[in-house]
Amino acid sequence: MDIIFEGIKQALSLLISLDPEVMGITWLSLKVSGTATLISLFIGIGIGTAVALTTFPGRQIVVSLINTGMALPPVVVGLFVTILLWRNGPFGALEILYTPLAIIIAQAIIATPIVMGITLAAMQQLPRKLRLQILALGATRFQMVWLLIKEAKLSLMAAVMAGFGGVISEVGASIMVGGNIKGYTRVLTTATVMETSKGNFDVAIALGVILLIFAFAINLVLTRVQQRERPR
Amino acid sequence: MTANEPRTPILQGENIQVQRGGKRILDVSSLKIVSGEVLSVIGPNGAGKTTLLQALSQLIRLGKGDIYFLGKKVGADMPPLDYRRCLAMVFQEALLFDTTVYANVASGLKIRGVKSPEIVSIVNTRLEQFGIVHLRDRSAKTLSGGEAQRTSLARAFAIQPQILFLDEPFAALDPPTRESLLEDLNRVLRTSGTTAIMATHDQVEALRLSDRIAVMNEGRIVQIGPPAEIMNHPVNEFIASFVGVETIIEGRVIKCERGMATIAVSKNSKTPLAHTFPGGGAGAETSVDCSLLTFPKERGNATTNQSSDDPINSTPSIHLETLAERAEVSLLEAAGQVQPGEGVFCCIRPEHVTIYPGWRHERSSARNVFPAIIDRIIPAGPFHKVHLNGGFPLVAYVTVQSIEDLGLRVGATVIASFKATSVHMIRRG
Q: In this predicted complex, what is the ipTM?
């Protein structure tokens, strides 16, 4: 128990003293995971909405694939992204393995099915007749889709939280494609893994606490936005 | 519909067909609606009312057919979006957006890119018209059913539609709410002169609001006309039973003189009347002079599936009046032009049947007076529905007060009477 207590104390002191290394790691984590989430929102909401609003042969298979994708293990994603970006791999020429960009790509791949699955469920939950109602109000197809997305915004907020929560706490892919390079691709999770393996439990705990604080703070903001929208 | 239609129809559907799952769910050969008209579409569930509305409003794709708006063919002479922007639709569910009442009412205008100051004044007018000004800033999710439907109506009227489609707009509301909303809708419709097409399964609603009523069954319009015509002259048994004619008795014309027909109705036939009625067309009132007293030969199609214990159909017609004397058949007097020998359905609306106790001797001007036994008394709001057996089934509406005053109870014998003009005859196909 002392270790945990010490860790928390150290976390606070690291935070209060604005330790440059910790700040750098934290900032990179937020930047990488934030960007990955943003990318996943565009793709996930786009495709999720399209699948929700259309019917086509094989739709059930696509929906099952999306739902399976929601549980995609990060290490598997890390493995495949590594293979693709490997020097001799198909995208090796880009030389982006072990860069923050590689982590963004891997995390976007992890977050996209999560956002897509939640979007799909949210859009399907809207009353079917709402589409007709919107068209009857004189909307173009584009206006209709936009109004439907707005209508599902509370659920989509949950998609943002789930997507961001999934990637900020993910370690497998980050360490595989990022390489945990100090001052370059070291993020909160990979640093925690490293410090733990070195036996520096207090630092590891400090990093873990920081991770939790950020995850909490961001979800708190999003939740407040979501709850404000809800009728009282 | 009629030859002397004065105006170009605002909306015209020609040969509209909609298929779903290989089945034709809508098949309307021609429908014209004139500007300012309120048309109700009634029919049982699955009759195609909603499909008709959605097809006419171009919310669903037509399998076949054309829609004309003020003479312009939608999709050819005018883009579907332009057409849709001349319409509004209110569904059974309010289908409001998850925002304030104000923003909901404004939504159609915003979609059209109307400028804000203009939106404010239009929305305020509509909020007032539907009595929801006080709800202006409320979240739509917190509204009661009636408030939500008012908001939905205000939203529809805000875009000043040329045609308003209403799909069972009051079906989910409780009676008092429905009543007040119905009144407001009627007022706004009439003052604005908006053309409206409303689907409903409630014939009272249809009677209240409409200039014309269309009755649908199995994807087709089976009858269309002014409310009184639909209610009092249903063209077939389906419509007759649907519009609330509680008594439909099968009979055969034995004579017809100067528009007054005598119909033989077989007594105590336990089997209910055939519910299959050949659709459309049948039953138009004939203008043939039927002063013939003789009974023509049995029609081939009527004799095929009759059971032998049916005295009307198994006995030569000449004996019918004798049979009546032997109390095997009842004779009804009915106003209308029919031919002797014809099979008819006699429709008698329950409000046209009066009953009084058997012990009281009342002289009635009614041509049809029968002793009857009360089978059942079913409460139905301010009235009781009294099911009678006078040899044939008969239903009468009796006020709750009268039930007590007359001491009516199940098993009692009463005298039931109705006028010859209250009997509407539908020729059996």
A: 0.81
